[in-house]
Write a structure and sequence with these properties.
This protein is α/β, with parallel strands linked by helices. The protein is built from nine helices and 14 strands. It is globular. Bound molecules: fe (ii) ion.
């Protein structure tokens, strides 16, 4: 780079789904919703995964679970076995997780909504979250889950996943603020205003992957309302696998709409598996 000053906030990568890995400047690593490979059930056969194994994660000190559907916990057990991270999730999930997983009880870190938690390298604010609509009653959901996971205790976690969802905003030791939002807005636009505003938002798209109408328009409208510097979309791996052009156009269209609205916020696509750094920089305008 020419003239200017750059201060690194952290390294991070999007792996797949809502699985992000952050590495803070003190070396501590946080992994969200571990899902980087297929499983034997065949339910993820439509996804092209990045080439990542549990060994590639290096170190994982914390895991955060937004909710407990299979595409958020598929690789949790092997991550726990290898790295023994502190597993941060809503207290409503903890008992079933311990029944389903081989977990060290003191590694589980139950959190509740609208809380503030202090970890090594970051502070985490937790917020109530809701899942995108799943028009299923419990018995059908459990039945479907049992079909996917016969005799698997994760079936219970599967149908619970539509209920206990948690978003977070973390602040690094150096003061960079990152929001992580899955599912619906559920009040996040209001929560993230004024002194609560993050620098960057990592957000699931506005509806399920099956919904492909007005995706960029609705997503950009949300982004314009929350009005932050940067947005990283996540959990659109189905489109990246089956319709990459659609995914690419979503980003382009969102940035065009933000420009038309006179907003400085921009959408930053990330290539799954590739490491990036988030910096704060001062550069000359010429
Ligand atoms: Fe889900």
């Amino acid at each position: 780079m020419a003239d200017g000053t750059v201060s690194k906030a952290f390294s991070f990568r999007w792996i797949n789904g809502q699985c992000f890995q952050f590495r803070f400047n003190n070396g501590i690593s946080l992994l969200t919703d571990p899902w980087y490979s297929n499983d034997d059930s065949g339910m993820f056969n439509h996804i092209k995964f990045p080439d990542i194994t549990v060994d590639d994660l290096g170190n994982v000190d914390y895991v955060f679970l937004n909710h407990t559907h299979p595409d958020h916990i598929n690789n949790l057990q092997e991550v726990m076995d290898k790295y023994h991270p502190t597993v941060i999730t809503h207290s409503g999930n903890v008992l079933e997780l311990m029944k389903a997983m081989n977990a060290v009880t003191t590694d589980m870190y139950p959190v509740d909504y609208e809380g503030l938690y202090y970890f090594d390298g970051f502070v985490m604010e937790t917020h109530h979250a809701t899942h995108h609509s799943m028009p299923k009653r419990l018995p059908q959901t459990l039945q479907a889950a049992l079909k996917e996971y016969p005799d698997d205790k994760r079936a219970t976690l599967d149908w619970m996943g539509g209920t206990f969802n948690t978003n977070f905003v973390l602040t690094t030791d150096n003061g960079m603020r990152v929001a992580f939002i899955g599912g619906n807005d559920d009040g996040m636009i209001q929560r993230l205003q004024g002194p609560n505003k993050p620098n960057i938002i990592i957000r699931n798209k506005m509806a399920s992957s099956a919904v492909k109408d007005n995706v960029a328009e609705n997503f950009a409208e949300w982004f314009a309302q929350v009005d932050t510097q940067m947005l990283i979309p996540m959990h659109y791996e189905t489109w990246l696998s089956n319709d990459p052009e659609f995914a690419e156009n979503m980003i382009k269209d969102m940035n065009r709409i933000m420009e038309e609205k006179g907003k400085a916020g921009r959408v930053a696509p990330m290539i799954r598996g590739k490491w990036y750094t988030l910096n704060l920089s001062i550069v000359p305008e010429d």
